[in-house]
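Illustration: Thioredoxin peroxidase.
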Amino acid sequence: MSVLVGKQAPAFSAKAVKGETIIEDFSLEQFLGEKYVLLFFYPKDFTFVCPTELHRFQEELAEFEKRNVQVVGCSTDTEFSHWAWLQTPRDKGGIQGVNYPIVADTNKTISSDYDVLAGEYVENEFGEIEIEGELVAYRGLFLIDKDGVVRHQVVNDMPLGRSIKEAIRVIDALQHFEQHGEVCPMDWQKGDDAMTPDHSGVSSYLSK
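Result:
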């Protein structure tokens, strides 16, 4: 798997859905210099684990917005599938009420560029191209800073839901480092003491 941390996030332009609106040319470039982006991939619309994640991102949207973070979802479904799912009530398996953008990676190119695409194209004994597995996205999550650089990534297998709390914790750690120049130790939480390297190269705790 590719490690994108420290590199520019792969650019794309694709259709997306926000609420009842289909966006023809959605791109992360609109957030450069303005916002952080939390881009997350999920396997499929109208499934079981996926709606729990999409609803949870929505429930915590105010926390992301307080941190100047734009949440963006993405799967390999079409914009029409996204739209239908967004109009379906929660008690019927839908994600009605979710109002952050969901990108339609219909051609699988975005998932491929972020290296979260399951399945693969292979050539059989007759020289014909076949697909092994299913070409859908793993549960990838990428934190992209205001310069468009990936600062954090995590990828789960399809049965394994993510932790929204951990996503927020990592955002807090990144923003603390950017604001104070202090590094954040294991399990650091906002409000905890951070660390700074002294001249000997040994890190020491510093209280705020």
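Reading the tokens back as a structure: The two ends are 38 Å apart (CA to CA).
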